User: Which sequence fits this backbone?
């Protein structure tokens, strides 16, 4: 062993670097950098992709000083519950300081992926003008910019390969941003503007598609009608991923035939989405020819496709691995999925009516899927009701879940048959699925479930709890038991100071903890902040509910804490107090 | 009429049911944890259904706005008044994409141009937010504005003399200073 060790020490750095090239996951690279000083050094100079799960855990300056050759950066900003309007818009998560530092630091940035960050037009302009090799921009659930910012990207990024916007409200400035791609731009591989509300110049789009011969992924928005889509498809038969836009006309037979012909040409499409405004289902059969090749189908924005048409479409898709639908599909429709899509790995069923109307799925649909799709490993399921028996059956059928998220439309609903809590059902899931990394629970739940989670969910990294539990013990079981826990988010549950302060060191092993409408008091948060200097404990006081008085006994409405190497952030707005 | 032990149960209060009359208010806070029929001030305007909680079901806000059937949609009609006009109009904020769109539509509604433009306009758009304060249109991101706007008023600039209004901010775009 000793001679082997000394052999390793004499490896020239180039060899080490070459070996490290094969390590693609950032966790592996992080692990490698901890081995010894020389490995740390080699690794940091050769790292090109950096993932930062919480933009406030580290500063841009420290990022650049440790990884000067970074080319690809992924940043996440607001906590997850910001998706559900629990975090004010101006809480933070600005990308501007990162872009400024990288510009100043001479970073050769090529790729930027942001989630829940605030991005301004100014940031986009800076990005477009200071990084000559910039190639890829992916923005998910971000906000703060307009189509002017997009115009800057289109105009100035000469080698742009990817522009991918997901679930973003972009203010439309009617400036024809798409027409800003110069004629010399031929490098696009992926263009996704499905979420944009404004108009685009169709002629510019068609010309852009025609000259980008490497285009693989195109998702257009509602403003692209069927005849334009058909012309685009004729120019791009090489597409692998298509977002159809509105698909919302009632075409005459000539247009329909042209569309069908265009679709038949696209033999490479394996991923399909869109159908944003399907008014009549007459055009749907035009996509049947490509259905049998599809591995991914997203109909979750297709409110206009009714259950029977949906089912007809899905019957053609026997290679599906990933399916996103609305609950209008119904339990029967899920039965069809179960018998057709034997390769299914991921299923997401979204509510079509947030008030819980007639169209909804129940435990029956879930059981059918679990029985028919043995490869299922990831599920997000919004349902009207659930039973322990169903969950136990699902756990038995599918022990391979990595992500299991269930949301009952009534958050505290008990077992629909026995009226008992759903502890046993979810307990069966965590017992059976030894590889479970992410879990969201709902329904009537007691501390018993959290005991099960603490005991069995050994690989669990992220847990979401709402309206659940009876006492501090519940939270304690989780914090004490789940050794790999990284993110815990809790709302409207009776967990308080005792649980919060039981094991303060635990929070340094996690990325973050969110607690809202729980029982923690200001005093306990202050204690935690004081004892743990490497945590930022933030109180969000957006409704002016709290006064900065001495009353440490007052309940805290929203608390978000996270580990950090750089102390309290300097950009917190007035309503965010860092204790 | 004697206030006897029946008093509390039948007395009309704003407290949640079953809470009793705990003066310190801490009882009330404890109840919040499991009663899902509470609603925040944001949702009161839209909560036709009693059983609504902020952020439940956990559907992200983009999806909430965009995936539900058209008939159902969360429309945000607000009244618009213009100084000097004999009657008010109504405008649906949920179908506007941003400030420039809104201002253009206001101009069309009242047949008056240049609302919100630099100095050249004789009018300035203001809105009443959910706290009851009158605010200048354009300071906050569009989403924040459309959620908190209760009504709009197109005010004569002369009435706003002395207040440092910078209407040109509307078209500048919202740049966040970090």
Assistant:
């Amino acid at each position: 062993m000793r001679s082997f060790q000394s052999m390793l020490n004499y490896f020239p750095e180039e060899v080490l670097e070459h070996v490290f090239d094969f390590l693609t996951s950032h966790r592996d690279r992080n692990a490698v950098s901890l081995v010894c000083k020389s490995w740390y050094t080699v690794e940091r100079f050769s790292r090109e992709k950096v993932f930062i799960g919480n933009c406030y855990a580290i500063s841009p300056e420290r990022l650049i000083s440790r990884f000067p050759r970074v080319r690809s950066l992924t940043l996440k900003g607001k906590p997850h519950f910001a998706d559900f309007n629990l975090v004010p818009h101006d809480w933070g998560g600005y990308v501007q300081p990162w872009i400024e530092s990288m510009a100043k630091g001479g970073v050769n940035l090529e790729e930027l992926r942001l989630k829940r960050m605030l991005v301004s037009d100014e940031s986009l302009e800076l990005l477009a003008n200071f990084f000559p090799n910039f190639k890829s921009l992916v923005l998910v659930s971000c906000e703060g910019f307009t189509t002017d910012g997009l115009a800057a990207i289109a105009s100035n990024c000469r080698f742009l390969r990817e522009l991918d916007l997901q679930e973003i409200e972009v203010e439309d400035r009617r400036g024809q941003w798409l027409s800003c791609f110069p004629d010399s731009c031929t490098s696009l591989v992926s263009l996704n503007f499905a979420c944009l509300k404004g108009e685009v110049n169709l002629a510019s789009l068609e010309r852009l598609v025609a000259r980008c011969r490497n285009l693989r992924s195109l998702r257009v928005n509602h403003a692209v009608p069927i005849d334009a889509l058909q012309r685009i498809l004729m120019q791009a038969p090489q597409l692998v991923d298509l977002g159809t836009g509105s698909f919302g006309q009632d075409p005459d037979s000539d247009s329909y035939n042209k569309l069908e012909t265009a679709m038949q040409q696209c033999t490479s499409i394996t991923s399909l989405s869109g159908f944003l405004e399907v008014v009549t289902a007459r055009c749907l059969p035009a996509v049947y020819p490509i259905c049998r090749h599809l591995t991914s189908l997203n109909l979750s924005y297709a409110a206009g496709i009714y259950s029977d048409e949906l089912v007809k479409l899905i019957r053609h898709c026997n290679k599906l691995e990933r399916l996103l639908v609305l609950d209008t599909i119904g339990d029967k429709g899920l039965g069809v999925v179960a018998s057709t899509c034997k390769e299914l790995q991921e299923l997401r069923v979204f509510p079509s009516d947030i008030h819980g109307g007639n169209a909804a799925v129940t435990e029956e649909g879930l059981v059918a899927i679990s029985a028919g799709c043995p490869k299922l490993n990831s599920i997000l399921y919004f349902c009207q009701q659930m039973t322990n028996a169903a969950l136990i059956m699902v756990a038995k059928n599918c022990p391979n879940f990595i992500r299991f998220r269930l949301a009952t439309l009534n958050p505290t609903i008990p077992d629909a048959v026995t009226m008992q809590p759903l502890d046993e059902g979810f307990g069966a899931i965590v017992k059976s699925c030894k590889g479970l990394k992410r879990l969201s629970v709902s329904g009537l739940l007691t501390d018993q479930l959290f005991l099960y989670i603490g005991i069995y969910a050994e690989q669990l990294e992220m847990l979401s709890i709402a309206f659940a539990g009876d006492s501090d013990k519940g939270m304690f079981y989780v914090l004490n038991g789940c050794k790999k826990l990284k993110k815990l988010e809790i709302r409207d549950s009776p967990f308080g100071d005792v649980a919060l302060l039981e094991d303060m060191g635990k929070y340094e092993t996690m990325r973050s903890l969110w607690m809202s409408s729980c029982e923690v008091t200001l005093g306990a948060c202050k204690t935690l902040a004081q004892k743990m200097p490497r945590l930022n404990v933030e109180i969000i006081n957006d409704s002016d509910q709290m006064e900065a008085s001495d009353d440490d006994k007052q309940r805290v409405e929203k608390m978000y804490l996270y580990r950090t190497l750089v102390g309290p952030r300097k950009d917190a707005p007035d309503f965010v107090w860092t204790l | 009429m004697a206030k006897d032990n029946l008093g509390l149960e039948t007395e009309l209060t704003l407290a949640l049911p079953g809470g009793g009359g705990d003066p310190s208010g801490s009882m009330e806070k404890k109840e919040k944890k499991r009663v899902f029929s509470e609603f925040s001030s944001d949702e009161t305007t839209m909560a036709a259904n009693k059983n609504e909680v902020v952020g439940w079901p956990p559907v992200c806000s983009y999806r909430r706005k965009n995936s539900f059937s058209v008939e159902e949609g969360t429309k945000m009609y607000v009244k618009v008044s213009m100084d000097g006009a004999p009657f008010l109009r109504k405008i649906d904020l949920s179908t506007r994409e941003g400030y420039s769109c809104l201002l253009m539509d206001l101009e069309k509604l009242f047949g008056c141009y240049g609302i919100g433009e630099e100095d050249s306009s004789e009018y300035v758009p203001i809105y009443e937010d959910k706290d009851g304060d009158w605010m200048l249109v354009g300071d906050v991101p569009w989403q924040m504005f459309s959620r908190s706007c209760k009504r709009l008023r197109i005010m004569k600039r002369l009435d706003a003399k002395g207040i440092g209004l910078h209407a040109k901010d509307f078209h500048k775009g919202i740049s966040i200073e970090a």
